[in-house]
From TrEMBL:
UniProt keyword annotations, A-Z: Plasmid
Domain Transcription regulator TrmB N-terminal: residue ranges: 10-76
PANTHER family: HTH-TYPE TRANSCRIPTIONAL REGULATOR TRMBL2
A Pfam family this chain is assigned to: TrmB
Name by which UniProt lists this protein: Sugar-specific transcriptional regulator
Signal sequence coordinates: none
Organism ancestry: Archaea, Methanobacteriati, Methanobacteriota, Stenosarchaea group, Halobacteria
Keyword Magnesium: no
Annotated organism of origin: Haloarcula marismortui (strain ATCC 43049 / DSM 3752 / JCM 8966 / VKM B-1809) (Halobacterium marismortui)
UniProt superkingdom: Archaea
Length: 259
């Protein structure tokens, strides 16, 4: 990474251009006066003073009260902590405000829609975990990645088991599965050679209570996973019934708990 790239990254984290340049320069030279800083960066000397005091107020540098003043960066760990605290404070403030804007009915509008789409592995995993956490009777989940699942997903399925929900994993024959699921006596695992063989782009499937589903596919890009899902709708019920029907056909050749 170059100085210019580091400057752009610090700007994305909330620093101004001058603040980023001065801080990077101080990290490089250790400490310096306004004249010394201005000589190695394109920040005008008068602006160095203003920028340095702004950085001090943010907790990024300390100022030696001498004549001339000498500026010194805090440790990188301390600077990182300052950015994290700033981000968390801003995040909490804006989401507190957004929560105050939500109608009292919550997400009812979401449930009234037929089908929703969502893109990105992390967002899809979070949606799967949320839908699984709302299960009342059964959960069926299939994925080509069952060996290193998201901790949120593991927690959601384990919590479902503790509530007495019937949890079933659908895997391809020979597929490696995380030991935490293998060792969980409350999770049934069905292996079949026919899983995903009809569509090379099929990625993950979730069926909850026979009236909630999520189906994802993956394109050519590394994180180009897209999913459609529907909850407690006629469309979801029909999709679940058809899928479970096909599932019952292919499980005639399966073995439970061992590939």
């Amino acid at each position: 990474m170059s100085d210019n790239e580091a400057t752009e990254s610090l700007k994305e984290l909330g620093l101004s251009t001058y603040e980023a340049r001065v801080f990077i320069t101080l990290v490089e030279i250790g400490s310096g006066t306004a004249r010394e800083i201005a000589s190695v960066t394109d920040v005008p000397r008068p602006q160095v003073y203003t920028t340095a005091h702004d950085l001090e107020s943010r907790g990024f540098i300390s100022i030696q009260q001498s004549n001339p003043q000498v500026f010194q960066p805090v440790s990188l760990d301390e600077a990182k902590a300052q950015l994290e605290n700033r981000f968390e404070t801003q995040r909490d403030s804006v989401f507190d405000y957004l929560e105050s804007l939500e109608p009292a009915t919550g997400n009812e509008a979401e449930e009234n829609e037929d089908v929703w789409s969502i893109t990105g592995k992390t967002a899809i995993t979070e949606r799967i975990a949320k839908l699984a956490s709302e299960a009342n009777q059964t959960i069926l989940y299939g994925s080509p990645d069952l060996v290193d699942p998201s901790p949120d997903l593991v927690t959601a399925l384990e919590a479902a088991c503790e509530r007495g929900i019937g949890v079933t994993l659908l895997a391809k024959s020979g597929q490696t599965i995380d030991s935490s699921w293998i060792d969980n006596d409350n999770i049934d695992i069905f292996y079949s050679s026919q899983v995903n063989q009809s569509n090379e782009y099929a990625e993950r499937i979730l069926i909850v209570d026979l009236d909630v589903f999520l189906l994802s596919i993956r394109g050519g890009k590394a994180d180009d996973e897209t999913a459609v899902w529907s909850a407690r709708t006629t469309f979801a019920q029909i999709f679940c019934q058809l899928t479970i029907g096909n599932f019952e056909e292919i499980t005639t050749e399966t073995q439970i708990k061992s590939p």
